[in-house]
Amino acid sequence: MNERTPGTPPLIQPVPSGVHRPLWSVMIPAYNCSHYLAATLQSVLRQDPGPELMQIEVVDDCSTDADVEALVAAIGKGRVAFYRQPENRGSLRNFETCLNRARGKYIHLLHGDDMAGDGLYADTAKLFEQYPEAGAVCTGYSYIDEEGNYLWGGNVLLPTPGIISNWLPAIAEQQKLQPPAVVVKRSVYEHLGGFFGIHYGEDWEMWVRIAAHYPVAYTPRELAAYRVHTTNITSRYFQSCQHIKDVVKVINIIQAYLPAQQQRRLKRKAQHNWSVYFARTADMTYHKYNSPRRALEQAMRSFMLHQNKVTAYFVFKILLKVMIRYKQGGKK
Predict the structure, then answer these.
(1) What's the burial of 62, exposed, middle or buried (CB within 10 Å: 0-12/13-18/19+)?
(2) In sequence order, what are the beta bridge partners of 59?
(3) Which ranges of 79-185 would DSSP assign to H, the alpha helix?
(4) Alpha-carbon span 26 to 69, nearest angstrom
(5) Minimal CA–CA distance to 285: which of 234, 225, 226, 249?
(6) If you count DSSP H runs as helices and E runs as strands, how many of each does the chain have, helices first?
C-alpha cells in the first residue's frame, strides 16, 4: 500500500479515451468538515452549467463527523457524485484520488470547507481562452470565518486580468495564493504530478512547480473564499509547530525549480518572509489556542529560520509573556 505522504509527485493518469470530458471538474476533497460542506456545495451549484460542462464530485476520506454521502445526496439532489475512500488515506492521497478521478479539462480542487465565489468558473474559463498558454488561472480571494463572514481580502497580484510577469521568483519568495482561488489544467497535473512531501505548504510547492513550467493568468476579482477555523489542517499544524518544519522542507524542495543564479537570493528571501509571518502568528498561538509553550517554540523556530528584528522582537515578547504568565485571553 502506498505511504500516506508520497515522497515524490504522484502520477496523474490521462483520462481514458472514450470517456466524456466536460470542461470543468470541481473536485471536493472532504474530511470531517461536514459543518461547512453544504455551503461549499451550494457555492458551486449556484453557478452549475450542467453535467455536460461540469463534473462535481465529493471525495470523502472516511469522515467520522457525519454521514457525508447522505449530506451530499440531500444538497446535490443527484447532481453531485460521491466517492468514499476505502480507508483513511490522508489529505495528499485524497487530493491524488481527486485529480485522477477528474475528467474535465480544468480542475478546481475545492476543499470541503472553502467556497467558490459567484463568477469563478465563467471568469477563469474566459482567461484560459484568452491565454491558452497558461497552465493555471488564479483569482483574487477573501478570508471568511467559521460562520462565513468576510474577514479580509487576500493579496492583489495585478490591477487588471492578465498573465503574471516574473511569477516564478514572486511565488518562490512566499505563498501568495489560497487553494480555492486556483484552477489548473488537467494536462498540467498529468505532466507534473500531484501534491507530495508535506501537509502544510504542499499547495505552495505545487504553485512554484507550475510556475517553473507554465505561464499563470490572474484576475483580481475576489472569486473564492478561504475559511479560517480552528479544526482545519492549518490550525492543527500551528499548534504543533509542524507548519514551520514543513515550510523549511518546501523551501529546500523548490530550489530545484529555480534558475541557479537566483536560488540563493530567493531562498534567503523566502526564509525571511516566512520567519516574519510565523513570528507574527506566534501571538495567535499564544492567545487563540491558549498555548504559551507552543507560541514560544514557534517564535524561537521563526528566529532560527531567519534572524531579523521582527523575529527577535517576537521571541522577546512571547518569552516575557510566558515569564509573567500573561493572561492568554488578554490583549496582545
Answers:
(1) middle
(2) 29, 83
(3) 91-101, 120-130, 167-173
(4) 17
(5) 234
(6) 13, 10
β-pair partners for 116: 224
What's the full length of the chain, in residues? 332
Residue closest to 323 by CA, chosen among 299, 293, 288: 293
Task: Look at the alpha carbons of 295, 297, 303, 306 in this order and tell me if their dihedral is positive or negative.
Answer: negative
d(CA 99, CA 12) in angstroms, rounded, equals 7
CB-CB neighbours of 41 under 10 Å: 26
- Round to whole Å and give the CA distance between 14 and 35: 34
Contact 84, 69 (CB under 8 A): yes
- Asked if 66 contacts 34 with a C-beta cutoff of 8 angstroms, the reply is yes
The DSSP 8-state label assigned to residue 11 in this structure reads P
d(CA 252, CA 95): 22
**d(Cα 311, Cα 300) in Å, to the nearest integer?**
8
Spatial separation of the C-alpha atoms in residues 128 and 300, rounded to whole Å: 44
Q: Domains in the chain, please, with CATH?
A: 24-227 (3.90.550.10), 244-323 (no CATH)
150-153 and 182-185 strand pairing = unpaired
Q: Label residue 6 left, alpha or beta by phi (over 0 means left) and psi (-120 to 50 means alpha).
A: beta
Residue in the structure block whose three cell numbers are 465565489: 117
**Rounded average pLDDT per 10-residue block, the chain, 332 residues:** 88 97 98 97 98 98 97 98 97 98 98 98 98 98 96 96 98 97 98 96 98 98 92 61 92 98 98 96 82 90 96 94 73 44
Answer for the pair 287, 241: CB distance below 8 angstroms, yes or no.
no
